[in-house]
Amino acid sequence: MIFRKACKSEEKAIMALYQSVIGTPFCTWDGSYPGEEEIRDDLSAESLYVLADNEELIGAISVIPENEWDAFDCWTVRENAREFARVVIRPDHQHKGLSRLLVEGIIEELQKLQADAIHIAVAKENIPAQKLYAKTGFAIRGEADRFGHSFFLCERLLQRG
């Protein structure tokens, strides 16, 4: 498995990844989110990463250029914090530890960019994601309701150098 930045030519394959999990347990996405606009924006910002096995895409994760959760007062670090979102692993490759590879890969990338913290909003009903984030060093800092769902707001502090 290789963790790397996504290529523009993979836009349709990434959309297929997103659509493959809609309607599965713990997924809060619907037919309109995430969509082509999010993929194009992430590709333009060079903030979309994939997990690939040879040429086959297994998963994807995005770093959000603007942290939409910054307005909440729960964060330990507000300046120089980054957010990731849209974590997806193809259903036939789930339960193999691959989501952890995505999260660990993005942590390494954000450390290289010298971020001081990482923020993530995880749906309260997404128990597997909550467990993953806890295992990878994230702590719950608050709660919020948005987009028709309730979320835990999680943060991981990063060490430099």
Topology overview:
Layout: E1 2-5, H1 11-21, H2 36-44, E2 48-53, E3 56-64, E4 81-89, H3 98-112, E5 117-123, H4 127-135, E6 139-146, E7 149-157
CATH superfamily: Gcn5-related N-acetyltransferase (GNAT)
Order of helices and strands: EHHEEEHEHEE
Helix content: 25-40%
Q: How far do the termini sit from each other?
A: 26 Å
Low-confidence segments? none
Radius of gyration: 15 Å
Shape: globular
The CATH level-2 architecture is identified as 3-Layer(aba) Sandwich
Cross-sheet strand order for the largest sheet? 1-2-3-4-5-7-6
Strand content: 25-35%
Largest sheet: 7 strands, mixed
**The top level CATH class name:** Alpha Beta
The CATH topology: Aminopeptidase
Total beta strand runs:
7
Description of the molecule:
- The radius of gyration is 15 Å and the shape is globular.
- It has 161 residues and is of the alpha+beta class.
- It has four helices and seven strands; from the N terminus they run βααβββαβαββ.
- The protein has one domain: Aminopeptidase, CATH 3.40.630.
- The longest helix has 15 residues.
- A seven-stranded mixed beta sheet has the order 1-2-3-4-5-7-6.
Protein traits:
161 residues, seven-stranded mixed beta sheet, alpha+beta, 7 strands
Short description:
By secondary structure, the chain is an alpha+beta fold. The protein is 27% helix and 32% strand.
